[in-house]
Amino acid sequence: MDSVLITGASGFIGSFLVEEALRRNFGVWAGVRSSSSREYLRDRRIHFLELDFAHPDELRAQLSGYKGTHTAFDYVIHCAGVTKCADKADFDRVNFQQTKCFVETLCELNMVPRQFVYISTLSVFGPVHEQDYRPICEDDEPRPNTAYGLSKLKAERYLQSLSDFPYVIYRPTGVYGPRERDYFLMAKSIRQHVDFAAGFRRQDLTFVYVRDVVQAVFRGIEKGVSRRAYFLADGDVHPSKAFSELLRKELGNPFVVRLKCPLFLLRFISVLSEWWARRRKKGSTLNTDKYNIMKQRNWRCDITPAVNELGYAPEYNLERGVKETVAWYKNAGWL
Known about the structure:
By secondary structure, the chain is of the alpha/beta class.
């Protein structure tokens, strides 16, 4: 039985990765913090490993303790990270510096796995091809315009700088599905009869259902790919209101007032919201990073390499994915 360590296992994508690894009969180690919720990690076959990425000595001791009993992991899927921070410096500290420390520790302890999977984001590329709406491809020059995207790009470049290190990077576009909270807020708003759009210029959006992200990761493991990076999306391109219209349909077509906010006003609100959240020492859903994401007009990306090299075949179009997501929100009592 091959072993896999999944960091960030208690999170949205991480919990689905754990479920799929169990289905495939891996020996699954869930990397969690001591304070992490285990709500979606209740299968008795899961082994837990508390990892303190913030303290290198603690992390080294925790990994050494595992190695003393079980040797190295066959695979590591590094899904841990932050998407919201009260202090933007925390993006760099967690997403880049802690990833670097984790990899350095694996190397020092001779625990380099057969494959190290890094869950990155399409946001590492930022606003590319904003005028002609061509798909972003791997040969384009990344120009991240968010602290989040920059921190992920720095982690990617660190992995790529390591000689012979067996990384595989996945850059999903907007990931949605059960347990995800940002798109839930959109559903909640629509149920309350309000929809919101940023700006007036055309916006091309792409999405990927969480189970298709998981599918790609395990196809990459099966294929034994190494030192590659892939974009992940469902293969379709949607206008800005497509997601909210499908949410509305699954919610019984409630009457909705659609508000379009000029970008200059959205920026002002984002700055104010971020300032208030920082004073309370909390993350804010609406902040300047989020503003730059909402301002970006082109989210097309080229998934051809994932299709050709991994056999990646998205199983969920947006309509099917939203239908299952809303059904889960209802069954879980979120809606």
